[in-house]
Design brief:
With about 350 residues, the chain is an alpha/beta fold. It has helices at about 5-15, 60-70, 85-90, 115-120, 160-175, 210-220, 230-235, 255, 270-280, 295-305, 315, 330-345; strands at about 20-30, 40-45, 50, 75-80, 95-105, 130-135, 145-150, 155, 180-185, 190-195, 200-205, 225-230, 245, 265, 290, 315-320. Helix 6 packs across helix 12 (about 330-345) and helix 9 (about 270-280) crosses helix 10 (about 295-305).
Length: about 350
């Protein structure tokens, strides 16, 4: 399940006041379905969103989550499937790995922290970092204490100031490096993990071939904005799934949208002068991925037309857009674009 869908369930459960448990994978060895930093939410009813295995262990986690809610205390659970997994679980999992999961209670009286702040990070525009104490003999950093390093400061839950200062550098490092790691040192074990924002995709051009691209991106859990200057195109069936479908003149895109907020932009108006206007405005952005439909010769012509205005776009512009998977339909082209996007954005 995508982080976006996880947040949708979180919002519904939070409105109802239902107690929840945040389950976070903090250590793995061998072959496992998920790696350190993977998160799921479990409701008091036993309902859950997300996966840490292929569905094999979530039922047991839901049972353990009830105990965490009842005691209002965090807990850790280890699933060691490296030996005789079939005899232990009777599921034929075949992963042959070890998985440790940390369970934290989330309740209304504490405003569902620390996950409420994590949710803000997921909706943001920059990767933030977190530190979750999973093992400790330090009273300043009890088990379950969490510190979140954000661009505008840091948030501390369940730790005193001196304890928070001890793990804050590691949380900031996790944001910068973009990877999760478990560190055991001087009586504590801490999971440092990045909090990556949900990808934001801008599609410039609302032709029929944009419909599957938008639909697949939404299925992946991305925030998608579609913009076009043709009202009938913007109103096309299928774009109601996008976060926004906007009627915008090509030369006013930068004045209408904050282009630097998008992780990726795909230009697909199928009209050379319109694409040129879009790219001229994108040339000054920090967007990591800019793609344009059409053959390489079309890309080169657009860059030549832009001249000095192309700026750093020459190094960033993908054209033809997408991976070469012999795509020959709107759906397969959308798949090739999203595969390239996932490969690019997954490294941030």
């Amino acid at each position: 399940m995508s982080v976006r869908n996880l947040l949708q369930s979180f919002n519904a459960w939070r409105i109802s006041g239902e107690p929840l448990v945040l389950a976070t994978v903090y250590e793995t060895q061998g072959s496992t379905y998920s790696k350190a930093g993977q998160r799921i939410l479990i409701a008091a009813s036993g309902d859950y969103r997300g996966l840490v295995s292929g569905g094999c262990l979530e039922g047991d986690l839901a049972e353990r989550a009830r105990g965490v809610i009842a005691t209002d205390r965090p807990a850790a659970v280890t699933y060691d499937l490296r030996d005789a997994a079939d005899e232990l679980w009777g599921l034929g999992i075949g992963c042959n790995g070890l998985l440790r999961v940390f369970l934290q209670p989330l309740v209304a009286s504490r405003l569902y922290e620390p996950f409420a702040t994590m949710a803000e990070c997921f909706r943001g525009t920059h990767t933030e970092g977190s530190a979750i104490v999973v093992e400790s003999d330090d009273p300043a950093l009890p088990v379950g204490a969490t510190v979140i390093a954000r661009a505008g400061g840091h948030c501390v839950f369940g730790a005193v100031a001196t304890g928070a200062e001890r793990v804050l550098p590691g949380a900031s490092r996790a944001a910068a490096e973009g990877r999760a790691r478990l560190v055991r040192d001087s009586g504590i074990g801490v999971l440092y993990a990045p909090l990556r924002p949900i990808p934001k995709l801008l599609v410039l051009g609302a032709g029929l071939d944009a419909v599957p691209l938008v639909g697949m991106a939404v299925e992946l859990g991305w925030f998608v904005t579609v913009a076009d200057h043709r009202s009938a195109y913007v109103a096309r069936q299928g774009f109601e799934r996008a976060e926004r479908a906007l009627l915008v003149e090509p030369d006013t895109v930068a004045a209408t949208l904050v282009l630097d907020e998008f992780d990726a932009v795909v230009v697909m108006s199928h009209h050379l002068p319109t694409d040129r206007k879009y790219l001229a405005q994108l040339a000054t952005t920090s967007c990591r991925y800019v793609g344009v439909l059409g053959p390489r010769a079309r890309r080169e012509r657009l860059l030549a037309d832009l001249g000095d205005r192309a700026g750093s776009l020459s190094d960033r512009l993908k054209g033809p857009v997408g991976l070469d998977i012999r795509a020959d339909s709107p759906e397969s082209i959308a798949l090739s674009i999203l595969a390239e996007l996932q490969s690019t954005l997954g490294t941030r």
